[in-house]
Amino acid sequence: MTPPPTFLGMPPFPEAARSAVSNPQLRHNLRKATHTIRDKRAHVVGELSDWAELRAAGAAIKDRTLRRLDEYLVAAEAAVTAAGGTVHWAADAAEANRIVADLVRATGETEVVKVKSMVTQEIGLNEALAAEGIRAYETDLAELIVQLGDDLPSHILVPAIHRNRAEIREIFVREMAEWGVPAPPGLTDEPAALAEAARRHLRERFLSAKVAVSGANFLVAETGTLVVVESEGNGRMCLTLPETLISVVGIEKVVPTWADLEVFLQLLPRSSTGERMNPYTSTWTGVTPGDGPRDFHLVLLDNGRTDVLADTTGRQALRCIRCSACLNVCPVYERTGGHAYGSVYPGPIGAILVPQLRGVASGKVDPQTASLPYASSLCGACYEVCPVAIDIPEVLVHLREQVVEGGGHRAERAAMRAAEWVLDDAKRLRTVQRVAARSRRLLPRRAPGPGAAWSDSRALPEVPARSFRDWWVRERSAPPPQPPAASPQPPAASAQPPAEQNRIEEDDR
Amino acid sequence: MRVGLFITCVNDTLYPRTGQAVVRLLERLGCTVDFPTAQTCCGQMHWNTGYGKRIEPMVAGFADTFAGYDAVVTPSGSCGAMIRDNHPRAAARAADPGLSARVAAVVPKVYDLTEFIVDVLGVTDVGAYFPHRVVYHPTCHSRRLLGLGDRPTALLREVRGLELVDLPGEEECCGFGGTFAVKNPDVSTAMGADKVRHAAGTGAEVLCAADNSCLMHIGGLMDRQRTGMRVVHLAEILASTAG
Amino acid sequence: MSSREAILARVRRALADVPRDDDFPVARDYARAHVAEGVLELFVEHLRDYRAVVHEVAEDALPDAVAAAVGRRGARTVVTPAGLPAAWTAGLAEGVCLADGWEYGQLYEDSINNRPELVEAAGILTTHALDTADGVLTAAAVGIAETGTIVLDAGPGQGRRALTLVPDWHLCVMRAADVVASVPRALERLDPGRPLTWISGPSATSDIELNRVEGVHGPRTLEVLIVR
């Protein structure tokens, strides 16, 4: 069983999006943040003349890995074990949560500090640990904002992107004391002051933490090395100071060789935070006596990933390195934010990853999941910026087919069948056009029923008196048209007939 | 050169003016234009909505209808991209080698109108006259899938009387997206509202693009908002002359 | 069946379309480096872009430069890792240096972190002792010009990872000869078996409105002395 990586009770995307687009504060916060990061990304990506080659190599390395994933996983396991780590395998979220809880309990501790990790959000680890009497403290600034605000993450990289500085200040002032060191008196909403407040709030917790939980950005099969890419130093704190480190890592995070990192450590920072390099990157292999944790556990997680792998079109989603460039550039995400997607993985990548993890191919998914592949205008901006060239529009269309095959929507299916009947045959198309033209004076410019989805905000186009087809058949069919001149040169600007035609068509409307 | 015009079902039914403009323009540039009446639709709506397995008759119909022409010209970026990118995929899926061969034969001859004029005819000054302040919106499929690049603006810059102004945020989708416009009307409208705001902010009278589907959406919003702007297909501008 | 076997079996089933001897090609036609000349200048420029304080000094001026930096900072205690050249701290007053005894590869009891008497015997500073220090002085393994990055690999004079994490000020000595142009060139020189820390400017966050703000949990000031 694959527990859904979902926020329970979220309505389907169009409904959730409706309230999001009507929230001026949210719209303003998102517009500002996404445009800031877009510009930064474009600037640092533009610095590398070989970006296209790096991107192609990134995609190819991931494909190479996925195509022999079993071998690379076994190699990684052997290397981690040889370096003094312990490897666990978790088929689903429940098993991963059970393994982590047991490992924490074995230490005798009831608190853990956490590095920001998408995969532990996916499996609902904090909630599972809480049920076992273990409190998990998020240490990434944005995760802290979300945790203190009893909120849900809305972005892969910046989970509190939907909050502006004033809202963050309010949350800190209100909630920090409940969780530990309170916010300093007179806290302003200056970003530097807010960062300082977070530093003070978490300092003692880092220095005394005994157990940490992390994810990882990469796992090198050849050496057993794990890589965590971060900015604030909370990652280093968690990876270095505690005695026990538990890293939960999706099976798709493996890369074959140490040298492969030369591609990803160029692609990832420039695509995610728009920096040449993120402030801190930590790599570790097993345990190093006297430096960092003395117990290291790696939990390899499937949780639906093998289902994604089985879909030859959809498997490219497993290339994802969680940079979130696709979110930042997506015109839909910019206007709805992440909550509307109802999952820890929002935006374009979420719209292709979540339905697959939840098993859309089986034909049995809830309406919320089934709505996600349609949460895109297929504009292609996501594919353009993806550093590992995931053709997100291609996968979206592929998943729409799976939704349709799983039952789809009855009214839509009937409409599509009717359209096919018309469009498969030119004579039928002409007949329908003529009927529409004859009744065009009767057609309203606002449509009733399902048509209101269009015409509530947009005027309907006027139906012309004659289709192009009718015009052609009447005016041009016989005799065949005579080219005005054999010359490829455009005629002088003073030529008369075209202007005449222009006027005829005005009357023709 | 014998040019087959693929007008597209949307233009055929709702925007005959655009088709008439294409005919007039290409004939003025010395082409012999034909409209094979057996044509219908490229199947894009079905494909993009998840009914791609049902478009085989449309794919076959297109390949057969246009088999005999030197070039197939279409005034729609998204339909052009649909044919170029997805007809081969659809044919491959139909597991009919004959169909794949017919599709493979016709696809390289398919051009967007601006590609055909600039690349094949080698012309950027088409002798047009259009005395208005204009913004050009590069629709997503004409920009990202077809890669029209600066061809449309190169053509517009040669139009006499036309003042071309930059459209802020031009790379952003207008929010049409085919059935997206009705499946997600609120987001679609929010995207379109920003596009209209950017366009109106330039003081232009006209927004033009190489795709009437996007223009139907943008124009529908402009109409409701009483912006005083209008949308015009690029082909109609290029076909206009002084008179 | 164990979860290990179950997952591996599922992976193999999912890859039914892929030949077992699959050798998917990776074209490595990207650049090994984007700059050939001016590597050191670029390194300095990019360090400064990310708000590191940078000074270039001659080898024989290093003790004075260290002392001057400590003086400017007003630091009274500075952590020094094992293997740091004694000459670097020759200009400092007595008692300023807080030596940490840990060395990479030395044989330790595996419980060293947990047993105060062993920690004391090895001369290893506690985390709280690090927290009260005013700064840390280290060497570095590799510098990367294109990204403005310093890599520490726990080698001599660099110490364990906590040393450069807990104190609020990191003074780092980088030899010009160890500065390479690019990420690929740096990885060639680094040993994945050692714990590595890549540092690009002081601790920062982009979590508030996606704007970079320096100074969260790691050192809020990064000062680099580049030795020509």
Automatic annotation (TrEMBL), chain A:
Q: Which InterPro entries match?
A: 4Fe4S_Fe-S-bd, 4Fe4S_Fe_S_CS, FTHF_cligase-like_sf, Helical_ferredxn, LUD_dom, LutB/LldF, LutB_C, NagB/RpiA_transferase-like
Q: Does the keyword Cytoplasm apply?
A: no
UniProt feature, compositional bias: Pro residues: 478-491
Instruction: Report domain LUD positions.
Output: 77-287
4Fe-4S ferredoxin-type domain location is 317-390
Its domain of life?
Answer: Bacteria
State the UniProt keywords alphabetically.
4Fe-4S, Electron transport, Iron, Iron-sulfur, Metal-binding, Repeat, Transport
Name assigned to this protein: Iron-sulfur cluster-binding protein
Query: What species was this sequence derived from?
Result: Embleya hyalina
Automatic annotation (TrEMBL), chain B:
Which PANTHER family does the entry mention?
LACTATE UTILIZATION PROTEIN A (PTHR30296:SF0), UNCHARACTERIZED PROTEIN YKGE (PTHR30296)
State the protein's name. Fe-S oxidoreductase
> What is an example of a Pfam family matching this protein?
CCG
InterPro entries for this protein: Cys_rich_dom
GO molecular function list: oxidoreductase activity
A single GO cellular-component term on record: cytosol
Q: Where is the Cysteine-rich domain?
A: 3-84, 134-218
UniProtKB/TrEMBL annotation, chain C:
- Extract the SUPFAM superfamilies matched here: NagB/RpiA/CoA transferase-like
Coiled-coil region(s) at which residues? none
Query: Residues in domain LUD?
Result: 40-227
The domain of life for this entry's organism is Bacteria
Under the heading Gene3D superfamilies, the entry gives:
NagB/RpiA/CoA transferase-like
InterPro entries linked to this entry: FTHF_cligase-like_sf, LUD_dom, NagB/RpiA_transferase-like
One Pfam family recorded for the sequence: LUD_dom
Q: What is this protein called?
A: LUD domain-containing protein
